[in-house]
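Protein: NAD(P)-dependent oxidoreductase
Species: Dyella koreensis
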Amino acid sequence: MTILVTGSAGHLGEALMRSLHAASRSAIGIDRKPSPFTQRVGDIADRAFVRKAMRGVSAVIHTATLHKPHVATHSAQDFIDTNISGTLALLEEAVAAGVNAFVFTSTTSTFGAALTPGTDQPAAWITESVAPIPKNIYGTTKLAAENLCELFHRKQRLPVLVLRTSRFFPEADDHAETRDAYDIANAQANELLYRRADIEDVVSAHLLAIERAPAIGFGRYIISATPPFAAEDLALLHRDAPAVVQRLFPSFQALYSAHGWRMFPRVDRVYVNDLARQELGWQPKYHFAHVLDCLAAGQDFRSPLALAVGAKGYHDTTFGDMPYPVTP
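Structure follows.
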């Protein structure tokens, strides 16, 4: 089986290519940017390029996208061209080439406004049944691409699985108040409780999805670290997250204090990965208990793959002390 990986110069694309090569699996990486993991350079909206890249391919993992960090630097048309038209070209050429599995990397950003409860409301419990309310062109175009994927399954019988991934990038938070109050490792350790996944676990979910797609047909799955919370924790999480974490992890406060770390005062949402674990057989290894074990042992909690891929940024220029520009 030859797997086509789009976006092979990006965080996830490189991680997938590294993992596939390490397992001696046949894979072709495509991207607009040259990289050590990109065999063919071109635009996924270029139909002739996509058609040529699809020859001999049995499965597609489509990670290429314009991301949230591009909202302030790219036009709405750019997002439509890449995230919608590019996905359409890949789906159509996958059908023409007889591809037997297509995995689309989407994002929990499609949930948008559904992720932000009112001040007096409990934290949001986010499962696949929550209706998306996109807040920007990124979420809107990713949701549209998801719907294209579903359409191609219904009309063309193409096996397609959509993976809504939470944060896995290593870059600093785009909110200045978070960057100022927490160092990167502290903030990202906190996020593993409810809105982050390690890239090694994200890769394993994609590779399982390739195997399971023909049997499932179509499905959407949240891909995020397994949260330790239950629905009855949601009200207190939104008022006093450290109290909930201390109850669940009695060693947490001492370990955090020893490293000069702090928990976020509130948690506004919890991503629930039950469906992915049940239907894909996914078993994520990186979670908050792992963080605490690593702190106790004086080790880095990130996976070797996350450390190998490292930070890439999203632009060819810098923006002062900001990881990328943001829109209001």
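Remarks: The longest helix spans residues 76-97.
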